[in-house]
Amino acid sequence: MPQGALTIRCRMWKTNEEANTDGQCIARTRIGVERRAFLWKTEHFTFFHVGGEETYRLKSTIDDSRIMSLKLFLRKNHRSDAILIKFTCFDVSIVFSTFKSSLVDAKGDYVDCGQHELWFSPTLQSTECMLSLSKDTLMGNKNLYLPFDSLTLYCEQIFSTGSVFEDIECTAYGCSNSFITNNVVPAHIKTANIKISETSYLKMDLGSMLQNNILCDVKLCVESETFSAHWLILSARSLVFRTMFQSDMKEKAQDRIDIEDLKPDTVRRMLLYMYTDSLEELEWKTASDLYYAAEKYQIMTLKDKCSSFLKSNLTLTNACEILLLSDLLQDKELKSTVQNFIMKNDKSVINSSSWKLLMKDNLPLAAETMLLRFKE
């Protein structure tokens, strides 16, 4: 299968009689595939016994839907405790998946734990696999295999999500044998196309390039994590990145950008949005962090979405923090919305510990907000 493509050629004919006309039809089907790579850490592994379990949940990078849960557990064998993983699939379109795991030891080296093929059906949505290393083996060389008493697995999972593209590319009648053999479509022959779904294949493909590190040419380094990306995409989505890449900055020469004031999860979410225009399930805290990142890198559509989310999710406990953020980033509209919320709930907010912290951190802002009561 060159480049992962399976090409099938079929010939159909009538028996006992001749066909009225010769014809040719060329069709194409594209199978959707998601590839996931992740680190799965189980802490305090010494105290992990039969009956306990550790869960990891896989979500789609395209629409954040729940795909599969993985549960790590132990099973008593004759002489040792075997390490198993139970896979429960929530997407009925997934029939087949491959799973490969490696233990990351204290030196940072990968120790192969096996590769498995997983099959699912509407009547069989759960299956198990056993790792090649047992708990006894790991405990026998704990300093190497379990640094800081943590089991760290590097996992790679590939699964099909069904057909994402089906098209009749060409239908032609009255063809000669040479035409069928050479696969040449004359200009005068009309083709019939089936309308495909309106799913954004561009977003899916860009998300796949980000997820699978395809042809990446720049790295974003945040704390201990590194994210691979593409200059072209970052430049198209962010004026700050565009200016950075067009200049002779030191970061460009190294194909590396060090980010010191953002968290790894925030950068991951920011990149996902830049490539797919999608936001994972937000909470007000993650939205606040993304809002700050969007302002820093001038990703205006992301900033607007985060601002709208914060306005819609104001509470008595987060109002003061969002007020501080809006004042810091000079977002007058968001700031006004938060101040109006505080005025409507003045007694509850002013008597809270969050308000006391606001007065300690930014007394002028607290005073400005309080003065609004007397302007009504």
From TrEMBL:
Output the Gene3D superfamilies linked to this UniProt entry.
1.25.40.420, Potassium Channel Kv1.1, Chain A
BTB domain boundaries: 216-283
- Fetch the PROSITE patterns from UniProt: BTB
Q: Which domain of life is it from?
A: Eukaryota
Pfam families per UniProt: BTB (PF00651)
InterPro entries the record matches: BTB/POZ_dom, SKP1/BTB/POZ_sf
Identify this protein by name. Speckle-type POZ protein B
Naturally occurring in which organism (per UniProt): Araneus ventricosus (Orbweaver spider)
Q: Which gene encodes it?
A: spop-b_15
